[in-house]
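Morning!

This is the sequence you dropped in the shared folder:
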Amino acid sequence: MDEATTVRKGEALDSRKVETFLRDVISGLEGEMTIQQFPSGASNLTYLVTVGEREMVLRRPPFGTKAKTAHDMGREYRVLKALGPVFPYCPRPLAYTEDPDVMGCSFYVMERLRGIVLRRDIPESLGLSPGDMTRLCENLFKVLYELHSVDYRKIGLESLGKPEGYVERQVTGWSRRYRAARTPDVPKAEVIMRWLKEKMPLDTDVPCLIHNDFKFDNVVLDPENPLKIIGVLDWEMTTLGDPLMDLGGTLAYWIEAGDPQEMQLMRSVPTNAEGALKRREVVALYERLSGRTIHHYDFYLCFGLFKLAVIVQQIYYRYYHGQTQDIRFQKMGYVVGILEKAAMNIIEQSRL
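The structure's back. Tokens below.
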């Protein structure tokens, strides 16, 4: 169960301004307000705001320099508002503002969704058997496919992105971001960026809503039935595009028991547990769910690893240049090197 704790140094909010805003826009708030911070997560900052007995979650961008199109709070709030009625895994959004007088940035507030979030390892107290882990993995990708099956036009999200040319824009855009955020102590990754550009598949004929950061620690499990997923979190990168790019992004986090030790060291979710699906089994499951054959698996996984390396590097850039004091980010340059090596291994073994 994720619990909030003391707000980190340099990431405190002006509680008086936050309280005034919330009481103005959310009816029925009674009692004293407290603000704590959830310690996990490395991108947007997430706080627990408690007013009396009511618990809410506040999301805002990180302090310091950030990518121009990243951390779009308005986009995340809009997605939750539109998607909630047809996709029952969304936390209920409550308020959003772009008023700089409140916090100096846009932010939004949603209801807290209480449940289990799996991190690096599965707690023994859950008592999950290998068969349970298999079913949980299957449920995870059923929820992903359920998202990909939503008719985004019917819920008014057709302007959220441009499916045409999506893969090309992703390869070009993430390559540009990596070059802009690269510090002298991480790989150049030019071979990877060139390979991705040369091996891009054609546009998908089934564009859909994609989450873009779908993984175990972004889903919430039912405390009464840990095999049941009751929530999906972190919608900041949601857009319209190729569902297989979404799948590749998930598989970039999917470290198996037999993967190299250096990959095990950076594992953040329990995909190495006994009974967990292998990456190839995940692909086969998605093929069965969608009724489609995946021809460019190597490309999607390689891109997922590279994109993850860019995200990690952007975070490390902030630490390297003194824009954050969060010591969790101190060794992220090393993680970038591990991801670069994993992507290169795929390229060297690829048949594409």
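Headline: The beta strands are 33-37, 45-51, 54-60, 93-97, 107-111, 208-210, 219-222, 225-232, 239-241.

More detail when I'm at my desk.
O.
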